[in-house]
Every structure is written in structure tokens, then in C-alpha cells.
Amino acid sequence: MVRITDLPEDEREHLIGKKLPPLGPRSWTKHDKPLTDMRVALITTAGLHFRDDESFDFTDATFRPIPCEEDSSNLIMSHSSANFDRVGFAEDVNLVFPIDRFKELVSAGAIGSLASVHYSFMGAGLMPNAYEQSTREVAHLLKRDKVDAVFLTPV
Amino acid sequence: MTTGISLVRENAESMQPPRSLWVSFPLGRPLGVPNDASFQHGVIAASLALLEHRRGPVLEDYPLDAPDVCVKTTPVCPVSFPKSDDNTDWESRLTSELSSLKPWYEIGKKRRGGRSLARLSNLSIDKNIRKLGKYLDLNHLPIDELQWFKQAIEDAKVFYLEAMTAEPGDYDQNQIYQKLWHETQLGAGLFLFQERFAAHPTLHPFARIILPRNAAVKTMN
Q1: Mean predicted confidence (pLDDT) in B4-25
Q2: In the predicted model, what is the mean pLDDT of residues A20-29?
Q3: In angstroms, rounded to a whole number, what is the distance separating the alpha carbons of residues B121 and B154?
Q4: Which of A18, A155, B62, B177 is buried deepest, with most CB atoms within 10 A?
């Protein structure tokens, strides 16, 4: 479990119904340095933020910054979808946002460094184009932070 | 450059992100297994390895499934939900149920090192539950405070779930959610809110955030 064929019919049809074409022309960035020298950022669409941050609205294309040095165990979730499990995330932030795993990779020298700020979106209820402005803004912030690669997690 | 995880292979196939690792894990669990650093590192390593490809898009399948929950060792939900007298009002039924959950919520919170997903809302869980009960009793929808409603139901659901999984162990997700939707007063109240929102001429999309699409299907024995 779980492959899409294992899901109940209505759930399966809903997810397959999201099939969308590629977003614009195909893009490909060649890696020009080894992973051990790369600076990596995490981006999730799980609707994560700290308790004092504004929670995500019913549909919401904005993003929340997650400073790398903040205590990630204080992250909470205001995702609008009721169609996924919350119990696992309550047990372990890393199940959705594997920041401790990436810190371990930096300590082990497997990757160069982590971005000073990571980001969360809330992926529900909107078509991808609605996120264009905020993703451009995040891309700009990542460039400024000299990030080489981004690790993306859905929920 | 990006790499990452995909939970729905068909969506990654059609949208063609540059690099994506499809995993067979349940929605809500992209790294597979909570509190299992070794398993999570395996998933991350497979995804980071995609950065080495010279051309794309690359969509690879992660070869491991998340281990099945062993039914024999699955902890039983410590909370029992007696059938309530339907003649009492919603507010009383919900506040009474909340009281029975509170000790378990605190035990669960302590076990998780003080961590809890509840308190999205500025109001306490007691105030939120009472307010939800009042709306149900009055047969009204919170049309003037939808953001509060979204936060309040999310808080209520995670409060219940954290109490129901207070004891350590690997829970059967289906069993826990089935109990929440079909044995609790909160579940019954959420079905009512969902029904009322679904019938509203303009606010019907809000019905989607209250319960999962398959909540009405009882699968528990």
C-alpha cells in the first residue's frame, strides 16, 4: 500500500483527474557540482508553518518561510485537504518535511549545506498557474541564498 | 535544479517535473515511515541520486513499500466512545466527549515530547468545541467566520487523533479514522456540517475540507 489502484474508486478518480500537462516548456538544469558541494533547500506543499504564522486559507497560493535554525518540532499544518493522514506527521515532522535527515546529511558531508530558509506552500484547491507569482518569488529568494538544488515533498 | 517525491505516479507522468521519485506510500506520508531515520534516508538518497542524471525528465519508482502495520502488535485506541443520548444537545455531547479525551491527549502530548498539532485557532479547544456545538444546535453555518471554522475543525480533529493514538506504537490508520468518523460525536457533527455546507448554494466547496471523500464508507468490522 498505497498504489493508486489500491485506493477507493472515488479517491482514485479524483487523483487521476488531476492529470495536467507539463507547466510550459520543458526545463532541465545540468548539475555542475557534486552533491557534496551543493546547497540544498526543502520545499513542501504540506501547508506547514509555525504556530505564530498566519495559517493557510481555504485556497491559498502564498507561502510560509521555514528558517533552517528554527525548531522544526514546532511546525504545524493548516492544509485544507481532509484526504490524507495527519497522525504520522504528529508523530514525526520528518515524515513530511525531512529537515533532521538533511541536517544529518550535512553533518556526514553527503551534501554541502542547507539553505538558510526553506519554504512551504499549501497544495489544495487551486490550479498550478495560481502559484506562479509566489513560486517566482521563492525562486528569487533561493537564488539569493545561493541554493543549488531543491528537494520537493508533497503530502 | 529540483528533485523530489511523487505520491501519485499518474500525475508525475503527465506533468513531467525534471526529476521525481514515485513512492507507494499513503497520502500524508511521503517519507514512508515516521520515526524511522534509516527508512527515510533511503527515500532521500534515491531522490537525490536523480540529480546525477544527464537528461530528463526522470521518473523513477522507489522499490520499497512502507511496511504493513502488524495487526497483532497494533495498539488499541485507549478511548472508548459510548453511544450518547441523542436527546441532549450537541454542545453537551461534544463537551462531554472532549472531557473524556483530555487525559489521553495530555498523555499523547507528553509522549511526543510536548509536540501537538492542535491550536491553529486562537481559541482553546474547549471554546472551539462549544462553539461548534452551538452552531450544530442552532442549525446554522458559520458563514461569517469561515477561517475560524477551518481552524476549529482542524484543531478538533487533530486533538481527537492525538488522544486516540496516545500510546506508543504503529497504529492502523484506517482503524483510527474509521473510529473518529463513525464512533464519535465529533464525527457525527462533522457529517452534519458537511451535509449542510454541501447543500449551500455558494459555500458548497467548503464541504470538501470537513471530511475525506471516503469517510462515509464504513470499513471497520
Answers
A1: 94
A2: 85
A3: 9
A4: A155
- Nearest-CB residue to B213 (from A10, A22, A155): A10
Do the chains contact at B173 and A87, CB–CB below 8 Å?
yes
Question: Which comes out higher in pLDDT, residue A34 or A9?
Answer: A34
Print the domain residue range for A39.
Answer: 33-153
Peptide bond into B57 cis (omega under 30): yes
| pLDDT single digits (tens) B43-96 | 999 999 999 999 989 999 999 999 887 766 777 777 888 777 777 999 999 999
B-contacting residues in A 38-57 (Cβ below 8 Å)? 38, 51, 55, 57
Q: Give a yes or no: residue A97 inside a domain.
A: yes
Is residue A28 assigned to a domain? no
Q: What are the Cα distances from residue B135, in Å, to A110, A153, B92, B210, B216?
A: 54, 37, 13, 15, 22
Instruction: Say what the ipTM of the complex is.
Output: 0.94
Question: What are the pLDDT digits (tens) for A108-148?
Answer: 999 999 999 999 999 988 988 999 999 999 999 999 999 99
Sign for the pseudo-dihedral over CA of B39, A35, A152, A64? positive
A138 lies in a domain?
Answer: yes
What's the rounded Cα separation, in Å, for the pair B132 and B193? 9
Residue B221 pLDDT: 45
Q: Say if A94 falls within a structural domain.
A: yes
